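ok trying again, last paste got cut off:
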Amino acid sequence: MWKEVDGIFTADPRKVPTARLVPVITPDEAAELTYYGSEVIHPFTMEQVIRAKIPIRIKNVENPSGSGTIIYPDEGFPRGVGGAEAVSADVNAVQTFLQEERAKLEGKMPTAVTIKDGIIVLNIHSNRKTISHGFLARIFGTLDRAGVVVDLISTSEVHVSSA
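nice, full thing came through this time. structure:
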């Protein structure tokens, strides 16, 4: 996929000068980043990529020699989908390379950080000692009727916070 960026970065390089290019990322990680504001790939495109289980490389049209980012399904190359059988590279070598690259990244730090503007935190505290039957359903029913999308939820015995 040719874009006007080198690929997916660990943060928005316009806001974080030390952002690094992510060489390999799973479709689920890429979808999460697109949902929270990464503009590299449209969320509907990511839905199709996840469904088809196909690898995609993102490269910059203005920097074609750059390595880009590979969005690579965990299951490996699918067979019989989108001409995957015609892949000329040795699939085992590609999988080994990608596994090694992911191993270097795992356990060290988050894949990426993104910012979403206009977030409101709503804290709801029950006046009862325990949450009664339907308490959460009433909260989210009310938010749904108001057209509020909830990105994050935290609950305790008598407290609900959502963003």
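cool. The first helix runs from residue 27 to 35. Helices lie at 27-35, 43-52, 91-105, 135-145.
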